[in-house]
Amino acid sequence: MIEKTTTLKSYCNVMAIERGLDPVGHAHDFDDALVVETPLPWKTNLYEKAGILPEEAINLLNLWLQRYHEGVSYRHRSLMIAPDAVYSRQGWRRVMFYQRTPGAIAHFDKVEYLVTEKDCGPLLWALYEARETLPQFEQYRVPENEAIRDLMVCTHGTVDAACAKFGYPLYNYLRRNHASDSLRVWRVSHFGGHVFAPTLVDMPSAHYWAYVEQAQADAIVCRDAAVESLRGHYRGWAGLEDGFLQAAEREMWQREGWRWFDYVKSGQVLGTDADHTAEPQWAEVRVRYSTPDNTEAGIYEARVEIQRSVETIHTTGEADTYPYPQYVVTRLERKPLDIE
Predict the structure, then answer these.
(1) Does 217 score more than 50 pLDDT?
(2) Could you read off the pLDDT of 257-272 as tens digits, one per residue?
(3) What is the CB neighbour count within 10 angstroms for residue 228?
(4) In this predicted model, what pLDDT tens digit does every residue of 92-118 receive, in sequence order?
(5) How many Å apart are CA 29 and CA 146, to the nearest integer?
(6) Can you give the pLDDT at residue 74?
(7) Where are the domains of the chain?
(8) Residue pLDDT, tens place only, 1-10
(9) Which residues have C-beta within 8 Å of that of residue 273, sequence separation ≥ 6?
């Protein structure tokens, strides 16, 4: 943890805001997310050996890391949520498994379990490496919860002090003021981007948010504020794997309004200036969309450029800085779906 003498200006997120860091394009995409209820405290070594996490969870993480080093793309997101006085059940663990279906999507598919402590590890392994055994865990399914919206606020102070300092008050505000039968609020472990604290991910829609204070929290929950007011708080959507695409998608949301988040979408990069020696500085992208009832469909095409980077510290208490690319949409066109 950071020293008590740390001043407000020393936190990584405060410095990022002062330097004008735009968060768009910095959402972590994934094909699936595994969310496991895990008792606090979450110490820095909890992923090294079985303890508060079952052995199967540690084995999965090691297996994914091994495959990554062998050249397999790492498309998973593993998260912990803290037990809740209302949501939790003594001796049991909640497990939420989110997965994107192939093709265009609006939200990730969700399966939820409330499983005994002894069966939690075997269930986690079954979800990835032994899916033929999943029927034996069907007794633990909680299908009535699979339509619930879950707001997950990072409060993981052992990763970065900013997430505890700024994230916990946001969690507390949301939990007290917005939790309902259709919306739960959780303390969640680090999911990247503490420089954007207070940060949250909204599931199952998988939208990432940055620098969230009470006014933005209300707007995110209710989706009744002008989208322009949240422009600088949107990190992006996990359904798009490229920062250029995520930046373009923000402009589409700004044009279409809140209804855009429920549109079925898919994206592709049409071309970049990438070569073998440098990161691309621009991209031409396309997003196909349709309304939930499929009565309206279309294509957006955009050119997105990195016009500068913001150099700022990556972690509170450390001197090392990181250059965050800043994406700017220089062209955005909407076309009929049949135009290629």
Answers:
(1) yes
(2) 999 999 999 999 999 9
(3) 8
(4) 999 999 999 999 999 999 999 999 999
(5) 21
(6) 93
(7) 8-241
(8) 333 445 666 9
(9) 280, 281, 282
Residues 6+ apart with CB under 8 A from 247: 24, 25, 236, 304, 327, 328, 329
The answer, yes or no, to whether residue 149 has pLDDT greater than 70, is yes
Report the C-alpha gap between 60 and 80 in whole angstroms.
14
Q: Pseudo-torsion of CA 97, 67, 240, 224, nearest 10°?
A: 30
pLDDT higher than threshold 50 for residue 53: yes
**Residues 6 or more apart in contact with residue 262 via CB below 8 angstroms:** 106, 107, 291, 292
At 259, the amino acid letter reads R
Q: For residue 253, give the 3-state DSSP assignment.
A: helix
Q: Is domain 8-241 classified as CATH 1.10.560.10?
A: no
Rounded (5°) CA angle 20-26-30 = 165
Residues 15 and 9 sit within 8 Å (Cβ to Cβ): yes
Residue 278 has pLDDT above 90, yes or no: no
Q: Which amino acid is at 23?
A: P
Burial class (CB in 10 A: 0-12, 13-18, 19+), 6: middle
